[in-house]
Structures are given as structure tokens and as C-alpha cells.
TrEMBL record:
It comes from Micromonospora haikouensis. Residues 30-275 form the Radical SAM core domain. GO terms for molecular function: 4 iron, 4 sulfur cluster binding; catalytic activity. One of its GO terms (cellular component) is cytoplasm. This is Heme chaperone HemW. InterPro entries: Coproporphyrinogen-III_oxidase, Elp3/MiaA/NifB-like_rSAM, Pyrimidine_methyltransferase, rSAM, rSAM_horseshoe, rSAM_sf.
């Protein structure tokens, strides 16, 4: 590995926090009030969904543990927050947006949620937050939890519905039924949170009824949700569904069928007055956009992920805490499991960042990419990795436009290129990630 903190070539891996922060401070010294995304990972769920890559490395018994079992994780999480918050504040960082994901943050009881928020509030100046989003599954919401979220300042909720077809939900390992999705939407609105998203997945391998997605969309659109996300299914290694595909227990959709499924969603959402501001993200009004998503995909600034299973970008450094290193995180929450400085020696580390930007209408902004990573797009595209990857995207149907300020994909080619690439990566790798 290359690109260790401080520059030059050398192995990446664990690095004492003092050396890491010194290297970050050197990079951000010239910036004025750099923005920061706060991400909090809650790696607990009611069920282990068959398609979800976020918890693929988490044993079921730990995923479903109770508040007693969660306490060591919350202890480590709050320690990490209280260590890094004041230091990053002194370096000039100011939180712009906050997102709690996982896992399922609403698995936590209200007192657990308050405890984490207290650590954040005591460690950062949260007055500049423009949006605080929290993920939930329909079966984990209660009026008490929603009241706590509202009280603390959550102003956006993302509801993981995925489908309203009961057979598809069962075969995907979901812990909720269609009626709970509708009840969750009603509960969020009654709690006074008027900005929420509903997550759906198209071209599920378990989707044997071609009309299921259309019926799901028709029912949900009748509820007038502010935001809808539609993700074409992605087979991720180690997930149950990917293993079922490998063993031919399930059959993946072919590329054209995957495209047709997504275009069906595009047509229904467009007819209902929604527009797509980033691939898969649909709103009627700009005020309901996912600002966290915009921040990441627009390459707007640094981010810190608290907890296991997180990724951070600070001062041209990539910091990882894999879910597989859960026990290591509990033992040393101040030290990241993997640290490396972005480098042309390992350009694949930037594939997800650039890939996320190419799913937006604006594409890759050269100045923001350089500020975020310390590397130029011109240098990146000359590496064999990026040359091959961009050529593959072109073969998948992407048409590129470039000027002095940036590089983007023509909007009407994004969905076809992305889905064709997904179909390719199910057997070949080299994935285009969401960042």
C-alpha cells in the first residue's frame, strides 16, 4: 500500500491519532472554516436483510442485540466523538450536515439517542447544521422515538421500504410488512417531520411479478412523499442474495430488463411531477433534496464517520473503520483501522468519490476534487485504473462532456451507463460506488 500520512510511499494501516491529526492540520491550515459532514453509524438492526452490504460482516446475534449488548459500542462511539470533536473544531471545521445510518439508528431507545446527541453537542458547534437525517425501517419507529428525534433536531427521515410486495419483502429478509410502511409515513408526518424519503429497490432478483414495482410506486406516490429514492439492485459479495445468485438459487435480471425496470420508475415519477437531481434521487421541490447526498456527491468537503463500518475523508486522507474490525473499534475507538493519504499509486481509492460525482448533473468539479483529495482529475485519468474505468463507462453508454471547470456525463446517459455497469460488475468487479 502507498500514500501513508505525511506523503510519500509507505504502508497504510493504523496510525496514532496524534500523527494523523498533525498531517490533517497541515493540509487544512490554509482553509477558512472548512465544512464538515458528520456521519454516525449504528450497526444494529431487527433483521439481517439479504441484499444489504452495510452489515454483511456483522453476526446476527450482535446485529440484533439489546440495549445491554449495545452499551460497549455506545461507550466507544461517545469516546471517539468527544476526542475528535474538539480537535476538529480547533482546526476550523464546522459541521454542515449530519446523517445517522447503519444499520438502523432507530433501533436505539430514546435515552441512547440522547446520549449520542449529547456527546456530539458538547464536542461540536452544531448551530450551523442545515440538515440532520436519520435512517429507519418501518418496524422500528414508535411515537416516543419520533418525539425524541424531533426534540433533538432531526429534520429529515429516510424510510427503508424497498417494496410493498409482501412476498418480495419476505424473500429479501425484511422485518416489516407493507402496512407498516404506510403507518411509518403517517407517524413521521404526525411527529411534525415534513421532509422524509422513501427508499425503493428496482430489479430485485426476488421480483418475479413484473407489475410489483409499478403497484408499489402507485401506492406510495398517492401518499405524496417529498423524496423518493430508487436504487437498481446491486449484488454485493458476502450478502445472502449475492450468494443465492452465485448458487443459481435466484436469477439476476439481464441488463435490458434492469434498465426497463428503472425507466418504468422514471416514467411514473416524472408523470407525478418529480425530477431526478442525482441518479436515483427524486423530488418535486429542491428544499426536499438530500443535502447530505449533495454534499458527498458534489465533493463539497471533508467528512468524519463515527463508529465501526465508517469511512472518513480528512485533509486528503482516507480513514476506514470496517465492520469486520468491530472488536478492534471497541478496544481503540480513537484510532482508525486503516489510514492512507490519497495517492496516484492507489487511484482505485477514488473510484467511489468520482463515481458518485458522475451520477449528478454537475459531475466532477475540478477545484473541489483537488481540495478534497489533493489530486487533480487530469492526473487521475492518466492512471491505468481510471483510463480503463472511464473507457468501460463509455462502453456502457456514458457520454462525457468536459470544459475548463469539470467533467460530467450527459444526463440522459447516466441511468443506462450506471445500470449497464452494475450488470457488468455482478461478474467482473470494478464497481461504480455511490461514495
Amino acid at each position: 500500500m502507498t500514500g501513508h500520512p505525511g506523503g510519500g510511499d509507505g504502508p497504510a494501516g493504523r496510525l496514532p491519532s496524534a500523527r494523523l491529526l498533525a498531517a490533517v492540520a497541515e493540509v487544512v491550515a490554509a482553509r477558512t472554516g472548512p465544512p464538515l459532514e458528520l456521519y454516525v453509524n449504528i450497526p444494529f438492526c431487527a433483521t439481517k436483510c439479504h441484499f444489504c452490504d452495510w452489515v454483511a460482516d456483522v453476526p446476527v446475534h450482535r446485529l440484533r442485540t439489546d440495549s445491554t449488548g449495545r452499551r460497549p459500542y455506545l461507550d466507544a462511539l461517545c469516546e471517539q466523538i468527544r476526542f475528535y470533536g474538539p480537535v476538529l473544531t480547533r482546526l476550523g471545521y464546522r459541521p454542515h450536515v449530519m446523517y445517522w445510518g447503519g444499520g438502523t439508528p432507530t433501533r436505539l431507545e430514546p435515552d441512547e439517542t440522547r446520549r449520542i446527541h449529547q456527546a456530539l453537542d458538547e464536542s461540536f458547534d452544531l448551530s450551523g447544521l442545515v440538515q440532520w437525517s436519520m435512517e429507519t425501517t418501518p418496524n422500528d419507529l414508535t411515537d416516543e422515538k419520533l418525539a425524541t428525534m424531533r426534540e433533538l433536531g432531526v429534520n429529515r427521515v429516510s424510510i427503508g421500504a424497498q417494496s410493498l410486495d409482501p412476498d418480495q419483502l419476505r424473500r429479501a429478509g425484511r422485518g416489516h410488512d407493507p402496512a407498516q410502511v404506510l403507518a411509518a409515513v403517517d407517524a413521521v408526518r404526525r411527529a411534525g417531520i415534513d421532509n422524509f424519503n422513501i427508499d425503493l429497490i428496482s430489479s430485485f432478483p426476488t421480483e418475479t411479478d413484473p407489475g410489483a414495482l409499478a403497484r408499489t410506486l402507485a401506492t406510495l406516490l398517492a401518499l405524496d412523499p417529498p423524496h423518493v429514492s430508487v436504487y437498481p439492485y446491486r449484488a454485493t459479495p458476502r450478502t445472502v442474495m449475492a450468494m443465492q445468485l452465485d448458487r443459481q438459487i435466484l436469477r439476476a435480471w439481464d441488463r435490458e430488463s434492469m434498465i426497463h425496470s428503472y425507466e418504468l420508475a422514471m416514467g411514473m415519477l416524472g408523470d407525478a411531477g418529480y425530477h431526478e437531481y442525482c441518479h436515483g434521487y427524486w423530488v418535486r421541490h429542491a428544499r426536499h433534496e438530500d443535502i447530505d447526498g449533495n454534499y458527498k456527491y458534489d465533493l463539497s468537503g471533508d467528512k468524519i464517520g463515527f463508529g465501526s463500518g465508517t469511512e472518513s475523508v480528512l485533509g486528503h486522507h482516507l480513514l476506514l473503520n470496517p465492520n469486520a474490525d468491530y472488536t478492534g473499534y471497541l478496544a481503540a475507538p480513537r484510532e482508525f483501522a486503516h489510514v492512507e493519504r490519497f495517492s496516484l499509486h492507489r487511484p482505485q481509492r477514488l473510484t467511489a468519490l468520482v463515481g458518485g460525482a458522475l451520477m449528478t448533473r454537475e459531475g466532477v468539479d475540478y477545484t473541489r476534487l483537488h481540495t478534497l483529495t489533493g489530486l487533480t482529475f487530469a492526473d487521475l485519468r492518466r492512471t491505468p485504473h481510471f483510463a480503463a474505468w472511464l473507457a468501460l463507462l463509455a462502453e456502457c453508454g456514458g457520454r462525457f462532456v468536459e470544459d475548463d471547470t469539470g467533467f460530467r456525463m450527459e444526463v440522459d446517459t447516466i441511468h443506462r451507463a450506471y445500470i449497464t455497469h452494475l450488470a457488468y460488475t455482478m461478474t467482473h468487479g470494478l464497481a461504480l460506488g455511490r461514495g
